[in-house]
Amino acid sequence: MTVAEVLKQSGLTDDQIAALDAKAMSAFSGILTTADQAKAEALQKEKAASDLAVKAEADRKAAEESALEAKTAQEAAELTNRTTEEFWKTTYPPAIAAMEAEKAKLAKEAADAKAEAAYYRTQRASYLGTLGINPEDAPVFTPPAVVAPVVDANRTPGTPTFTEDQINQRIGNGLSNSVWALQEHQRLTGQFLPDPIDQLAQEATFQKLPFRDYVARKYDFAGKQRAAQEAAAKAHDDAIKAARDAEKDAEYKAKMDAQASEFAAKERKIAEQMSVHPDMIVPPGSAKFTEVRRAWQAGERPDPTKMTPEARIKLTQDNMRRRLEESRQQAA
Questions:
Q1: What is the DSSP annotation of 155-207?
Q2: What is the pLDDT of residues 224-241, one digit of tens each?
């Protein structure tokens, strides 16, 4: 916008604008130019700040993705280590031991069978010789074919078999783990377990982790337990602080009440001693003080000892005026 347009928007007419001298117009132009430059610089800074904010958000997302990838890679590496460790500890040694035992058993059976066959051949030849028969001409006994036992192709050699007691124990452990998972999750979160038990069991098996370790890791039981402990500790500290503050408040109130009572007693005593109220002056042998007290107790008149200084002064002045009026009437 030009200087003339700006001045016109501010309410000046064309004649008033034309009447301005060159110096004023030059000054206005400089001001407008400075304002335009400041606005441009502000917009540039705003854009730079916006660009920085966009870059910071992109960097944050990249950092989160990198952290997630690192965590995923770490979990994958841990799973690989557990799988390898499980293989070498629970699968490979029993399989190798079973194979070695089977190999030794077969070798012994083969050696025993060979020795037995040689023994019977010797006995046969000796017996046939006594009968005058050539052993090579005698018929040879052919043993029946041995049917090999059916072996499960999916069964890993050396895989242990389970007895009924072991199966019952595993079922009991499964029930115990299920109850533990349900109770622990509800105790720490106040909510029911979101995933089925069989799904958790499959996931734990896939991750090569004990059921309880996997469930505790998946739902962060340790973190929730720490949070609950910290909340309980804070509540305990807050309760102690509240009790301490209440005790201090009670002590302070008792002290203030005692001071107020003491001050009120002193004020009442001074008021009784210093008051100019005629009803407070009890001549010897007069029963007017008793009548005044009766009036206070009956609510017929206020208690001067409990009145404010201003009210007490006003009451005294009223009584003095009333006495003076009564005196004038008696004199007349």
A1: SPTTPPP--HHHHHHHHHHHHHHHHHHHHHHHHHHSS--SS-HHHHHHHHHHT
A2: 889 989 999 999 999 999
Write down the pTM of the prediction.
0.34
The domain tally of the chain equals 2
150 within some domain: no
Q: Please, what sign has the CA dihedral across residues 60, 61, 62, 63?
A: positive
Mean pLDDT computed over 97-116: 82
Residue 23 and residue 25: Cα distance in Å, rounded? 5
pLDDT at position 55 is 86
- 188 within some domain: no
Eight-class DSSP state of 307: S
Helix (H) or strand (E) holding 266: helix 221-274
Note the helical H segments in 10-91.
14-19, 22-86
Q: Which residue has the tokens 């979990």?
A: 75
